[in-house]
């Protein structure tokens, strides 16, 4: 979701975007650099509730129970280093 910070008119569509509204166009990065739009990249929320008390983890695994799912996802998140690459649990980080 891209939040409009300052009112402007899009040079492509001629549509007026008012401060506080949502910008849904393709020029978000350009407008952010000019100070008109604040760009937010939504991160997927894990675990995802899939119904029946079951949750899907970021690795595709299914877990039953909310607390168990959040615990398992926290463990998965710990095994991912800052580069986004997973590391083996038995191998210490370098």
TrEMBL record:
This is Uncharacterized protein.
């Amino acid at each position: 979701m891209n939040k409009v910070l300052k009112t402007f008119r899009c040079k492509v569509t001629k549509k007026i975007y008012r401060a506080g509204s949502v910008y849904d166009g393709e020029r978000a990065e350009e407008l952010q650099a000019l100070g008109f739009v604040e760009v937010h990249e939504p991160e997927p929320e894990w675990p995802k509730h899939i119904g029946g008390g079951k949750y899907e983890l970021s690795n595709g695994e299914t877990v039953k129970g909310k607390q168990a799912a959040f615990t398992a996802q926290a463990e998965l998140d710990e095994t991912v280093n800052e580069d986004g690459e997973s590391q083996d649990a038995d191998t210490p980080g370098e």
